[in-house]
């Protein structure tokens, strides 16, 4: 391209003179400048890449040969082993007999036993014993012996109740002691001591009742709420 451009420029200068040649070459100036700049940059790049060589001595490096294709190794399958061994469990007859030993347990202390607390009534301080002094056709005489089992004098209360065959009370008294106070509550007769009975001693409360038929035992006899003997 450069040689052709020079031939064209020479012919222009010969035909029309210097001014006409310059005028005709102006449209080509940008192209020439661009080509020159491109060649200059290419030259600079080659000098940087190959500092010890001239542009004419630069030669392309030979392309290394391609490596040979890898060879596929042929793997032969290993023969399958069909023989195997296993442990045979012992026969049930060869096992030792199973024995179960009893487990003994002895606590360090016996477990506490929870028993309901029993409350015993206090011993009676005054007791009574019922008896018959005499019996007749239509009446009888009975008594209650009142005993103080403690070491101090005690008051006493005697309560009597009889069945229907026993009628009204005729009379009552305390032998050799101040007389008691008699009250009646329904079918029950109640005597309250006039004076306490002395310690370790007894008194006799006697009474006479009318009666129809036979029978002279009371259905209820208590001394200080304790059943008579």
Order of helices and strands: HHEEEEEEEEE
How would you characterize the largest beta sheet?
5 strands, antiparallel
Please list the strands of the largest sheet in the order they lie side by side.
Answer: 5-6-3-8-9
Mean pLDDT: 79
Which range does the strand content fall in?
Answer: 25-35%
Fraction of residues in H or I helices: 10-25%
Q: pLDDT under 50 segments (min length 5)? A: none
Kindly provide the radius of gyration, computed on alpha-carbon positions and rounded to a whole number of angstroms: 76 Å
CATH topology tier name of one domain: Immunoglobulin-like
Protein name: Cellulose binding domain-containing protein
Keywords: Membrane, Transmembrane, Transmembrane helix
Organism: Actinoplanes ianthinogenes
Main features:
229 residues; alpha+beta; Immunoglobulin-like; four-stranded antiparallel beta sheet; 9 strands
Describe the structure.
The protein has 229 residues and is of the alpha+beta class. Among the domains are: 2-57, no CATH class; 126-227, Sandwich (Immunoglobulin-like). The protein has helices at residues 2-25, 29-49; strands at 126-135, 139-148, 157-161, 166-174, 181-185, 188-192, 202-211, 220-223, 226-227. The strands form 2 sheets. Strands 5-6-3-8-9 form a 5-stranded antiparallel sheet, with no helix packed on it. Strands 1-2-7-4 form a 4-stranded antiparallel sheet, with no helix packed on it. Residues 108-124 have a biased composition (Pro residues).
């Amino acid at each position: 391209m450069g040689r052709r451009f020079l031939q064209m420029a020479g012919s222009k200068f010969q035909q029309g003179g210097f001014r006409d040649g310059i005028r005709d070459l102006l449209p080509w100036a940008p192209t020439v400048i661009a080509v020159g700049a491109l060649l200059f940059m290419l030259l600079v790049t080659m000098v940087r890449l190959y500092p010890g060589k001239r542009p004419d001595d630069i030669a392309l490096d030979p392309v290394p040969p391609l490596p040979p294709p890898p060879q596929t190794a042929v793997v032969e399958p290993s023969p399958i082993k069909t023989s195997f061994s296993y442990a045979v469990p012992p026969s049930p007859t060869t096992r030792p007999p199973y024995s179960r030993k009893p487990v003994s347990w002895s606590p360090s202390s016996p477990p506490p036993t929870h028993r309901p607390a029993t409350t015993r009534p206090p011993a009676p301080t005054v007791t009574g014993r019922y008896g018959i002094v005499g019996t007749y056709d239509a009446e009888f005489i009975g008594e209650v012996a009142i005993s103080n089992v403690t070491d101090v004098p005690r008051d006493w209360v005697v309560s009597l109740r009889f069945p229907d065959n026993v009628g009204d009370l005729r009379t009552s008294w305390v032998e050799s002691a101040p007389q008691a106070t008699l009250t009646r509550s329904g079918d029950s007769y109640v005597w309250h001591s006039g004076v306490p009975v002395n310690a370790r001693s007894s008194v006799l409360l006697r009474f006479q009742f009318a009666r129809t038929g036979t029978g002279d035992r009371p259905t209820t006899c208590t001394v200080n709420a304790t059943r008579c003997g």
